[in-house]
Amino acid sequence: MRSHYRPQLRRSPFTGGSYILGGIFAVIASWLLTGCKLPKFGNSTSQDPPPAESKTGYYETAPQSLKLCATFSTAQNCNPNVNPAYVNPELAYYGIDNPIIYYAEDGTYGSLRKATNPNMGLALTHNDDGSNLEITAGGTTRAWDDDRCNFRLDLEMRDGKIRRDIPASGNLSVPISGRFEAYFTVTYTFTGVCDSSFAGIKACYQNLADCPTGSDTQANWQSKAHAYFEQWIEEGTMTADDIPNVQAVSYEVQYR
User: Among 65, 69, 136, 217, which has the highest number of CB atoms less than 10 A from its own CB?
Assistant: First the structure.
């Protein structure tokens, strides 16, 4: 049962608010587009669409389903019926938003780019006809405050395709070329010696007074603890008491 949880308050341990973990971006830099400039579609005032033979363009998309899972050494608990409006902010941060820019660079490589910032996005492989779009990416950073415990993000996109046979809704201010469809799976895995980190996360998650002091405020530490597990706890796939036993949490979302 959802209680106080609100999607706009959801913080990612990788991207959320002031709790960005800078170390992760050194690893993720290899698959984030941070320096490529997207060719303009016509001039800046008309926003003309690209030529008809090109599949580069703006595409509508929206999350349709959301599944959350928590994995333990002997079991996995999943909730396949989460409101897709509560999708984790990672995907929007990296460019999966409405509309999205699909940039077909050649017959093998392309990218999905953020419409509000075309220099931000995700590199992908694809077929020349805009089918079989795939992304596999990941990065690792330190978990909590212990160098012995690592926290890894893995992002996979499968069954991606560009659909130009579906008319635009007409609700967007840019010229829409069709719809973007794909399944995304994002997994956060804890590896290494994590007993101490898990004990600290659990204590801080449940009680502000038990959060660390010194390197940051206790409130910020608690927000970070909630970023790791709050969505999964709120949606019933685990409890705070399960934190010491968790191996990974993940979500799968379908965009269409």
Answer: 69
Q: Is 27 exposed, middle or buried (0-12, 13-18, 19+ CB in 10 A)?
A: middle
**Would residue 54 count as lying in a domain?**
yes
Q: Are 156 and 185 in contact (CB under 8 A)?
A: yes
Residue 2 lies in a domain: no
Query: Per DSSP, what are the bridge partners of residue 149?
Result: 192
**Amino acid letter for position 58:** Y
Asked if residue 41 is part of any domain, the answer here is yes
Whether 212 and 197 have beta carbons less than 8 Å apart is answered as no
Tell me the residue range of the domain where 197 lies.
8-255
C-beta separation of 102 from 61 below 8 A: no
How much is the pTM? 0.80
Domain assignment present for 49: yes
Condensed to tens digits (0 to 9), the pLDDT of residues 73-100 reads 889 999 999 999 888 777 777 778 899 9
Strand 246-255 and strand 146-163: the pairing is unpaired
In this predicted structure, the answer to whether residue 18 has a pLDDT above a threshold of 90 is: no
